[in-house]
Write a structure and sequence with these properties.
- Keywords: Coiled coil.
- By secondary structure, the protein is mainly α.
- It is built from 4 helices and no strands.
- The protein folds into 2 domains: 41 residues; 62 residues, no CATH class.
- The model has no long low-confidence stretch (mean pLDDT 75).
Length: 106
């Protein structure tokens, strides 16, 4: 079955369909943008504060474990790091952070 439509009606229908598609895409993009911005947005000021904190606090630390704790605390305080504990970081460093491991080739 075919529907008798005029050229003007067909053009209007196609335009409306394209507008709906564009609106759908626009609704999807902000969510994706927010997710990536959370992962990469970092002010220079916060980064400098983090680095200064780590330098000042690790100066007197004698053991690697103490230094890792300080770095994780600084990341939590200045960078909003909430994804792990110093224990997890320490374990990952033991397995991935040694010279000559695949992590160096990334």
């Amino acid at each position: 079955m075919s529907k008798n439509t005029s050229y003007a009606e067909a053009v209007k229908s196609v335009k409306e369909q394209k507008i709906r598609e564009v609106e759908q895409k626009e609704r999807q993009i902000p969510q994706q943008k927010l997710q990536t911005e959370e992962n990469i947005t970092l002010s220079v000021e916060k980064l400098i504060l983090f680095i200064a904190y780590v330098i000042n606090c690790t100066d007197q630390a004698k053991h690697k474990t103490e230094k890792i704790k300080i770095i994780v605390r600084g990341a939590e305080r200045f960078l909003g790091f909430k994804e792990g504990s110093w224990e997890n970081i320490n374990k990952r460093l033991e397995t991935e952070g040694r010279p000559g491991t695949p992590a160096d080739n990334i």
